[in-house]
Design brief:
This protein is of the alpha/beta class and about 325 residues long. It is built from eleven helices and eight strands. The protein is globular, with a radius of gyration of 18 Å.
């Protein structure tokens, strides 16, 4: 595995010299931020990218830059997908299945963060329902389109440290709602899904991984108030100073999307499969205290038994078996 990439590597640096002609990639969440940059970088290197988004009008405008950078036969098209509605998820999957063309990579990039208490169209807690269950149904439904040698990349977060999944109360029906705890549950679920999906599909040559893109200022944080965000940064910098480390620095969007393309088409599949990555490398398991922006993954999100239990619970919740 190439070890020369890190936190400041960009998508163009990671993909330098890559020829992705003949590769077909699906990227969810292409109406802003990381999704747009991920699609742009892949199309610029010759990939055929299908971008999924809830708001096609917004996505059409946001992805003009993707089409402008098409090279080496790269192409881009849009697919309507609202992860907060299983009817939309199933319709989107059905359209891809009807089309029948295979994929080499699926990058599950779409998501919401720290939302007010609410539910999806199907009555699931907003963040768990959108970030996990929507992708759970969508990816499983199109799994037959993933050819041998393909990969699924789940864009998770260091926010998985806020909370493990709670399979007894996934919708906060008995637990007091906390937006960051709910976010943590959903991001833990993304990693656990990758662990179990990888186990189920590796014999046919399909692998899965999860990652943290880094701290980036995108639309994802729109539900976090300015004062709350500023307070978080002050606390982070105090902790970093106490550790003798430099102040926190936001990643640029090309830096943030770099780990997605690295895990999807650059790293060796066997190195990242069933693992959690950040800053363009596989993370070490670190339990106990770790700094607010330190690297590391909690062991509970890599636990095979929890991953299996989450899969079963998710099937029960969506009323569908995979």
């Amino acid at each position: 595995m190439n070890q020369s990439f890190g936190a400041t590597s960009t998508t163009d640096e990671v993909l330098a010299g890559a020829d992705l002609r003949g590769k077909r990639v699906l990227v969810t969440g292409v109406s802003a931020g990381l999704g747009v940059e991920t699609a742009r970088a892949l199309v610029a290197h010759g990939a055929e990218v299908v971008g999924a988004a809830r708001d096609l009008r917004k996505a059409e405008k946001a992805t003009a830059v993707v089409r402008d950078h098409a090279a080496n036969g790269g192409s881009f098209s849009l697919l309507e997908l609202d992860l907060a509605s299983l009817a939309s998820v199933r319709a989107a999957a059905d359209s891809l299945l009807k089309d029948g063309r295979a994929f080499d990579v699926v990058i599950a990039n779409a998501g919401v963060m720290a939302t007010p208490k609410g539910t999806t169209a199907d009555g699931f807690e907003t963040q768990f329902g959108t970030n996990h269950l929507g992708h759970f149904v969508f990816i499983n439904r199109i799994a037959k389109l993933l050819r041998s040698g393909s990969r699924v990349v789940m864009v998770s977060s260091s926010g998985h440290r806020f909370s493990n999944v709670d399979l007894d109360d996934p919708n906060f029906e008995r637990t007091p709602y906390d937006p960051f705890q709910a976010y943590g549950r959903s991001k833990s679920a993304n990693i656990l899904f990758a662990v179990e999906f990888d186990r189920r599909h590796k014999e046919r040559g399909v692998r899965a991984t999860a990652l943290h893109p880094g701290g980036i200022q995108t639309e994802l944080g729109r539900h976090i108030g300015h004062e709350t965000l500023e307070g978080m940064i002050v606390k982070i910098n105090q902790d970093l100073a106490a550790e003798g480390k430099p102040p926190f620095r936001w990643k640029t969007i090309p830096e943030g999307a770099a780990t997605s393309v690295w895990a999807g088409v650059v790293a060796r599949a066997e190195d990242v499969a069933g693992r959690y990555c950040e800053n363009c490398h596989v993370s070490e398991v670190t339990d106990g205290y770790i700094g607010p922006v330190s690297e590391g993954v909690r062991s509970y999100v890599l636990d095979a038994q929890t991953a299996k239990a989450l899969w079963q619970k998710s099937e029960e919740m969506v009323g569908e078996t995979f």
